[in-house]
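Batch job 17 of 40 flagged for manual review because the log was empty.
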Amino acid sequence: MSEPVQSRAAYTRTAVALHWLIFGGIACAFAMGWLMTDMAISPQKLKMYNWHKWLGITILALATLRGIWRLTHSPPPFVPMPLWQQRVAHSLHILLYVLLFAIPLSGWAYSNAVGYPIVYLGLWRLPDLVARNRELGAQLVALHAALGALLLLVLAVHVAGALKHHVLDRDDTLKRMLRWRGTNAD
């Protein structure tokens, strides 16, 4: 018995779960980033910085899993659309993956450069990526912020594209990242 066409066009449960977990992590990390930078020095601000770092490391781990999953499990083919749109979508996804690695790594390196180790969940000290160097720290925090702003822009384009497909084109592009595929290959 063959699988319904609609089901074959969906992402795997694992891909969908990782997509939405990463999205949730990014949303929380951005909210924390905005809140913590404007807070007065306090124990709460220090906690917020640690939570932000832990979330960044978690996003990095989830992005690594997502990247491995993507390399070992082909995504469904594009719905019918012009070749230029396929190329834009493919390029946008590559840029998203690059940012999912670059942003946490730049934050990690920034933290190390200004003399603060990352102790993940308060339990495991992660290795320093760079030696303490205040000048480098200033460059890395600027890079971290710039990459974050770029991620916001890329996410806005990603969401706009998904909504365009859903509302204007009325195709299954968005729906296949919202439904769970019912196979054991997930």
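Reviewer: the log was empty due to a logging misconfiguration, but the result itself is present. The radius of gyration is 19 Å. Unflagging and moving on to job 18.
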